[in-house]
Amino acid sequence: MKTSAIDVSELPEFAFGARDPMFWGVAGLLAIESSMIALLVGGYFYVRGKFAPWPPSPIGETARALATAELALLLASWFPAAKLSNAAIRMSLRPARKWLAVLTLLGMGLIVLRVFECRALGFRWDSNAYGSLFWAMVGLHTLHLLGGVGENAVFLALMFKGPIEKKFMVDLHVNGVYWYFVVAGWTVLYATLYLEPLMGG
Amino acid sequence: MSAPAALRVSLPRRPVEEAETREKLERTWSEPGGAVGFFSSVSHTTLGLRFVVTAFCFFLLGGIEALLMRLQLARPENHFLGPDRYNQLFTVHGSTMMFLFAVPVMEGMAIYLVPLMIGTRNMAFPRLTAFAYWTYLIGGILLYVGLFTNTGPDAGWFAYTPLSGPAYGPGKRVDIWAQMITFTELSALAAAVNIITTVFKLRAPGMSLDRMPLFVWAMLVMSFMVIFAMPAVMVGSTALALDRLVGTHFLNPVEGGDPLLWQHWFWFFGHPEVYIIFIPALGMVSTIVVAFTRHGVVGYTAMVLSLVATGFIGFGLWVHHMFATGLPQLGENIFTAASMMISIPTGTQIFCWIATVWAGKPTFKTPFLFVIGFVLTFVVGGLTGVMLASVPVDQQVHDTYFVVAHLHYVLIGGSVFPLFGAFHYWFPKATGRMLGETLGRWTFAFVFIGFHLAFFPMHLLGFQGMPRRVYTYVPEVGWATNSLIATIGAGVLGMGVTLFIVNAVMSLRRGTRAGTDPWSSDTLEWAAGSPPASYNFLYLPTVRGRYPLWSSREEPRLVVGLPTETRQVVVTRTVDGEPDHRMALAGPTVWPFWVSIGVGVTFIGLIFTPWAAPVGIVVTAVPLVAWFWPKPPHHELLEEQP
Q1: Which of B448, B540, B535 shows the shortest CA–CA distance to B495?
Q2: Considering only A143-147, B91-95, B550-554, which range has the smallest mean pLDDT?
Q3: How much is the pTM?
Q4: Cα distances (Å, whole numbers) of residue A8 to A22, B140, B346, B570, B571
Q5: Interchain contact, B256 vs A126, CB within 8 Å
């Protein structure tokens, strides 16, 4: 019997976005992490009914200011992250490296702010169930922050070391998606932990 | 950016060239030998098989625990086991079967079969497969180290607080349980992401979603369920562990926490878990029904929609485990409705199978016998499920042996029967030899009769009011006869499993040679060798229908132009399966093993001290960076270099 074939040798060796398997891998990871955050937020509102007044332990003003500063910084980091993604798609190494360096430094600054925020909260994880959930939510986000900054630092080191494959820029682009998640995650948690209790009710 | 389309060319088949290609592919895809090679494997067939064999060993351990419990309950006022030992046994039995057997064995089957069925050479993330395996193994060993040192968890497989909390669960027993959960769920999540990506991106050219085998659909739905269900139990088990380790109050009512929060977190995972175990089995049943009736499945679209619908509705049932906790009546009504609704997609599939059998020419080989056993048994379990969905009935039989009977009918009938069918069906693919048919039939007879003898009387015991998890009972309550029958049944079931092992061991040595496609099946794994070569297919196949191996009248069309020096595969588009680009998959390395060890040090350390967390981050991060550190390039280099 005759056999025909399709020749794939002319197909490219990489693709961006949803065409790239690594994109789906990271999307899966983010779905998992989003579920975790959602479950903690669910738990937080579940115990809320047991406390009057709410929140049972007042949040320190310094902590609130620091958390707000973190939110502002994270939202601002969208800019270098977007620049980084663009540079990755355009395959231009030097701008990509520059914006990744900016993003990594911003991330390190955020970690420092986070440490001071936690120290200024005024209650601990073992104060009450509110404290436990509060610390768990902030803690989970901090792990993501550490992971994101660590990953950025490794990527940065590779970008100084070389040699760099074209495919590397795809991974760099996907790494940017993870950073957007770190930003979005804190936006949700900030609204839950810091804003919602101000609305009374 | 649009990719240049793949060209159609004609392929002259020259034996000499083929032999050369074969040799090159073997060099590229074979795995290093020796001890380091053992820990470096990233092959989906090697790791899939390890998952299945390891899970089967845990199944045997869980089975032995069950037999010990049945011996204890065979007669009233028995003192074969004491209450403490009995508590550990039923907890470890349930935890083993759910976390160390059922989920990993299904993942193992997916890891072994999915890449073959969709016509590719490995999983999308080969090293993640290795990480998933080692992490699972460490979690399993942890549980059994606990049991064998008399530190086995003893608060039930769902570890309800406050019994499992710091006030009533002293020692490290519950901590071992909680960390075992974290290990196995991490492993399952890694496997799930891997399966989804593999199914979405690595299908053979032409395999659009509506041509995908139902087995692959089932594994896809299972993986999505894992992604949204498993985080709940990870959050829960972490909260429980933290309550016990650093004095948090997630579940402590005195400080505003709530033990019911545990039940919500646990069952938000726990109910979908049942479907995570059951849906892959549906995929196996569909495969076996098609292969042994020699007829395309009736109602393919309805089958796919049923799988997906089951996946969604499965998340709306968790509260029916909590009917006895005093929830608002409206909430109970909604969950009753959802619990009854889920029988619709399952019913649809059962009718589709019956129609397929009716339309085809069934041959009653062992795999098909297990499918028949599945339908009969699962329908009974499904019906008692509809009974339990009703709040008044549930209140009456809650925590009795009726529930034990129901859950074993759906889990063994719904999942283990199809799995044994699948073992008989795919054994020749994995080993190159057929399982003995006569012994296979005897296995089925013993398993089927033993099962019903063991579990049917439990319905009656439940009605008679026998509670779960009691280590003994007095003669006056009248539970002795049914309990003895159940124990005899368990023994018969155990003999059935033993027959299967004997059959497997004998067939491995002396079984009939299977050849590539012993059942004349329809799916692509039967186009690969038995057992498959390290690269699966000499040329990657393409697909033009739902039953690629049955459409032999069409000329075969293969994929050429992939370099043989690197581990390249074709990446196709998610929906229509058209070729999109090429990608080199990662090769063998020992680092995923060390990352699992790092995770192991962290989780096991956290049983004893919170300082394991910072230490663990370091010991995990170092091998993790090594894992991802680029090796000599496999792809085109960027023009601009640092």
Answers
A1: B448
A2: B550-554
A3: 0.96
A4: 21, 43, 41, 8, 10
A5: no
